[in-house]
Amino acid sequence: PPAIIRNAVPNHETTSGTLEHQSALLSLEHLLSRLVPTALVETFGPNHLVPTTECPTPSGGGRQELCMLRTLADVVELWRRGENGLYIKDWHMQADKERLLLQLDDQQMPLETVCLGSGGRSTLPCKAGRSNALHGGDLYRVPCYLGQDWMDEFCRSFEAGHGCCSSFGEAGSDYRFAYIGPPSSWTPLHFDVFGTYSWSLNVCGEKLWFFPTPDGNERLLEGGLRGLALVPDIRTSTWAELWTVTQFPGDIVFVPSCYLHQVHNIDGPRATLPIIVREVPEAQSIHEVGDDCARGAVPLVISVNHNWCNEWCVEKMVGAFCRDASRLAFLVEEGDRVALFGEDTRLWHDHVESMLLNGTNWNFASLRNFLRFRLRFYDNQDEAEAGDASVRSLIEECLGRLDALEEQVIYRSGR
After folding, report:
1. pLDDT above 90: percentage of residues in the chain
2. 8 Å CB contact between 36 and 203
3. How far apart are CA 412 and CA 405, in angstroms?
């Protein structure tokens, strides 16, 4: 079931040099200083595009979320005008910051070899490369007790040009996010991508989480066609008993694979908004104004989130893909398939892969590359560690399951 780790992050920096400190998420003070609107506009510039959602009100009569890219300047101005449902959501802020650091480095940097997990290696520019634990330009470290992150290592290898030809989602995409929004912004009922785990740290403000009980989770998933027809607001469902938890600053919420959840921003401290001068776009700048009333200040809830995978959830990840692949591939009736592709299994295979990638952000090639990447990780280790053999065996079983389903889908056997 879901879990919450209270006070996982200290309010202030410590001077400890211990291993425990080195694996911690730094401090709320440090994170907040980098993630308030003034700092974001200063770092990325007012024209930087971020993904936003206009959240419907709970009484909105089923109105869908409106998602679009906006500049940071536009987001700040809309918040200043009282658009309390506008939510910066699913922003790859950490990756954006790391790319920005690369762009700021004008001279060619020497290369260094950095550690991938506990044994793999990748060659990256010294200044821009990040270690396995550091994220967002030294914004934070992931605590070691959350375990290895196979997803991040795979995405980083792909971005560095040392990975395979097919990754998840868009090329270069990763699964680290920032969420910034006023109280009343919220995320409807859903489960996380690819059957992964997720953790979410509240930097400031409070969130209210809704979870079904484990039995209720299964009923809702089955009744909602495994995510295709979920109710947006779990509070309107009579299918499940609910658990609720309030997340405070410094708390980490853990969500297991394929576990439904709904999250509401309920309270936050007031954050000062920068005034952005727009007369000459090329010279757009931030003006520091002392009076909060002149600049505007709005309450905000800020959090960072990772989706991640390791040996404890890889089977569920593969199971989630198999459901997606079976469902989508067999949407095409056999007669239609023959009319469109005849006996050309290669064309049909390419069509299935395209349908999967466009519809679900992964396909047989991307998941197979991910699993093989992890096998190579163990091949490249100088010394085997306890448990490596069982993890290798698990990954090989997952690959076998994937191969069997692909053959079934392509040759339409076993329907």
Report:
1. 55
2. no
3. 10
d(CA 217, CA 209) in angstroms, rounded, equals 14
CA angle, residues 326, 331, 335, in degrees to nearest 5: 120
**Residues 6 or more apart from 82 whose CB is under 8 A from it?**
none
Which amino acid, residue 305? N
Q: Taking every pair of C-alpha atoms in the chain, what is the biggest distance, in angstroms?
A: 72
Q: How confident is the model at residue 111 (pLDDT cuts 50, 70, 90)?
A: very low
H or E, element range at 378? helix 364-379
| Residues in a beta bridge with 254 | 3, 199
Q: How far apart are CA 164 and CA 178, in angstroms?
A: 27
How far apart, in whole angstroms, are the C-alpha atoms of residue 125 and residue 112? 6
367 has a pLDDT exceeding 80: yes
Instruction: Report residue 301 CA to chain centroid gap.
Output: 18
Which residue in 184, 175, 268, 192 sits closest to 227, CA to CA? Answer: 192
Total H helices, total E strands in the chain: 13, 20
Angle at 53 (CA atoms; ends 31, 328), nearest 5 degrees = 110
pLDDT of residue 141: 87
Q: Which pairing describes strands 197-204 and 66-71: parallel, antiparallel, or unpaired?
A: unpaired
- Print the SS3 string covering 387-401: CHHHHHHHHHHHHHH
| Dihedral class, residue 26 (left if φ above 0, else alpha if ψ from -120 to 50, else beta) | left
Tokens of 262: 């709904």
By residue count, the chain amounts to 415
Contact assessment for residue 39 and residue 180, using Cβ atoms and an 8 Å cutoff: no
